[in-house]
Amino acid sequence: MRLIDTHCHVDLYPDYKAVLWESEHAGIYTIAMTNTPSVFRRCAALTRGARFVRAALGLHPELAATREREVPLLDELLPETRYIGEIGLDYVTEDAEDRAAQRRVFETILSRCATAGDKVLSVHSRRAAADVTAMIGAGYPGTVILHWFSGPKSALDRSVEQGCYFSVNPTMLDAVAGRRILAAIPPERVLTETDGPFVTVHGHPARPSDIAQIIPQLARLWAIDAVTAARRIEDNFRQALAHHPDH
Ligand code: MN
């Protein structure tokens, strides 16, 4: 069974080398998020030569206001990877200036990635899904994966129309609200993630291999067996990357 982790902060585990080795050894496709452009090269160096792990370039919304000066660096690094994340908006903050800085940063990244055309974006949208969806818009020229999407339903429906994918994690599926969201996503748009090490599974920080625990839940929801559910996620992942099959 091939597992896919589209959103894992590999560089934030104390034993990141072991996490990387586990993904390589088990053949788990893992997209390694970074939260600021200044750590990207270190993460990229770590994944150099890896078959299953790719380093993503990001600027996390919760760091956007304090790291806005790193946007030019992000611009410079953009040609070095096809994978972008973690990016997006987070409206847990009530601060209008902070939110405005987040929107500036996200808007710039979206537009640079649109110009590049073949990027795969992992996007955070906590309490900001309506703005995230509106900023991505219809016909966005890249692959957008909404990570840990939490509603509302109106933004979900619009994102589906706009061609977005949704990556679901164990914590999300432990909650009734998360399962309700999953049930509203067309099966061909569902992907899997751990968001490790932030998400915990049975008291330990989730690792890419913990994706195996989500598969039976997906299988139950879709009324298919686990092997078929895993294959569907793998097919969805290939579809998400299919714009440029040479990557
Ligand atoms: Mn994350």
Description:
The protein is an alpha/beta fold and 247 residues long. The protein contains eleven helices and ten strands. The strands form three sheets. Strands 4-5-6-7-8 form a five-stranded parallel beta sheet. Helix 10 packs across helix 11. The longest helix has 21 residues, at 96-116. The relative contact order is 0.14. The mean pLDDT is 96. The structure holds manganese (II) ion (MN). Residues 7, 9, 33, 86, 195 line the site of manganese (II) ion (MN). Manganese (II) ion is lined by residues 7, 9, 33, 86, 195.
Q: Which helices and strands occur, and which strands form pairs?
A:
Blueprint: E1 4-8, H1 16-26, E2 29-32, H2 40-47, E3 53-55, H3 61-64, H4 71-77, E4 83-88, H5 96-116, E5 120-124, H6 129-136, E6 143-147, H7 153-161, E7 165-168, H8 170-174, H9 176-184, E8 190-192, E9 200-201, E10 204-205, H10 215-222, H11 226-240
Parallel strand pairs: 1-2, 2-3, 4-5, 5-6, 6-7, 7-8
Antiparallel strand pairs: 9-10
Bound molecules: manganese (II) ion.
Manganese (II) ion (MN) is lined by residues 7, 9, 33, 86, 195.
